[in-house]
Here is the input.
Amino acid sequence: MKNLDPLLHNQLRLSIMSLLTAHEEITFTFIVEKTEATRGNVSVQVSKLEEAGYLSVKKEFKERRPQTSMSITQTGLEAMDVYTNTLKEYLNL
Amino acid sequence: MTSQTFDEKQGLDTIRKMIDSSRKSYSETAWYFLIWGWVILAASLIHYAVIQLQWTSNPMFVWFGALVMGILYTVIRSIREDRSSTNKTFVDYCLAGLWIGSNGMFLITILLGIQFGWYVAFPIFMAIYGWGTFASGIILKFRPLIIGGIISFVIAAVSVYVQSEEILLLLALSLLCSYLIPGYMLQNRK
Here is the structure.
């Protein structure tokens, strides 16, 4: 049986990636609201996922306010696909 | 939420929980069906009344006014909603693509109406209403829209054989069945 991707097998990082698979693009604030994690913690995990190439971050000004938004990359989608299939194997689903 | 590792069952639960939390009711998209439903229904009934009462020889001004009002409202509201929401799901993108594409079809049908007459164009308008509503119903998994779309297809087929001003009443009926009734049901959807 394959090993679970250690980068994804973490509650907060997996939550972020799950939200990204359901959306074309989401804001940093949206992730904080949905995961109920601290902004600092979300920021650290987003950086790790970005370094792995699983998501891409966009910083822009919207209505004169800075806004950070992100979207999942093809690498991230493939990693999530492998991760969920491996999970199913572990759980005999 | 902390960033500790966890077991496989929790992993699956986390994915489910986050995807469930992303689900929208899409009741907020009902405004599109309601505004266009009322605008076109009103225009078709006024057009019919103008013909019956012989108010003017050119009743197409009714459509010009209706389209300008509808387009202005739609553009302003869409821009406002786009500004306020960045968290778009793939369903949002499917719906946007579907209706932007449909608008292209509406434009072609208007040209067809100008060139070959409105009795040719009206059945195609009804078919486009039916197609957009049916496809939206499939995307949103909302049966009233699917049924409304099918009814609109049937009315469009019937209207091909009604080459008189009564076609305007069929157009109004098509809007009632495919936009207004499902639109209000969608608005009240939890």
Chain B has seven helices and one strand.
